[in-house]
Amino acid sequence: MEAPSAFVDRLRPAGGKRSSKRDLIVNVFLRQEGHLSADDLVDVLRREGHKSSRATVYRTLQWMADAGIARKVDFGDGRARFEHSYGQPRHFHLICKSCHRSSEFLSSDVEALLEEIAGVRGFELGQSVVQIHGRCDECRTGHRRRGQGDVPMERLFARDALRIAIQTERSGLDFYSRAARITKDARGRRVFRKLAAEEQEHLGKLEARYAELLAEDPDLESRPTFLFFKGAASGLFAAGAEELDKGADDRQALRIGIRCERGSHRFFKRYGERFEDSEGKRIFLEFADEEREHLELLIREYRSLAARESRAQSKAKAQAQPESKARRPRTASARRANT
Predict the structure, then answer these.
(1) The CATH fold of domain 153-309
(2) Which residue from 26, 39, 102, 166 lies 20 to 30 Å from 211 (Cα-Cα)?
């Protein structure tokens, strides 16, 4: 992950004057977790031995929000709060009107809907803030659910990114195992078996990383879901497996695999590139690279199979031509010439 200073310099507006006081406030802010008001940040600065007026702190927070270093949110209690973007993906908020607490989430469906609406309206999307107000489960029922305590968003993001990648690997393993069983061409069968073995290996590594994450926080499994990627890329391979079961020849099996890998690669690359630098981002982009390698292998094998089949057809046609000439009946003029 890039250093906080590099993150700020990358987003700092061009032409603006540098300020040591502003840089101090920014650095202290980036070390905090959660959502802070100007008063909250003034208190943090004072505890660390720094003096700064509330007006200066608020102007700096607003400057960070305008630059994309921070996001401004409203919990409905009359105080603007800010959260930093460093190491965190863009996300949305569920805000309780009773306790004013926020629960974060990210949904590919909401992202797609925003993009669709902006496209239809000819609107260029910038920084989007989605806030949904209602009442949380604890305020409605009076019972505090296990795993509702504060936890760094990056850890939730990494957990859910690993869950999605693991689910996709399992789906891909099932697809390639089925494809290997139905493929008649020996070379194509070896390719599918190779891909199944790689999916198995990658799955083991991802599950090990997931176990390490849980070891750091035993309650992590019970904490609320952050990433809502319905079906995600694993749905592509599940649909592809269903097509194989309906009947597919060798070329069709490869085409289905190419479609699944292309969709999976695009999915992980697209969302990985949107996230700020974080463990979740790295997981998505690593997975995108693996899917690209699988895609390229399948495309090469498809072209090779098509070339082999074309050569076989040409050879069979060439062998059939002399035989057909030998069996061709003689014409009347040929018969007269022989008499």
Answers:
(1) Ferritin (1.20.1260)
(2) 102
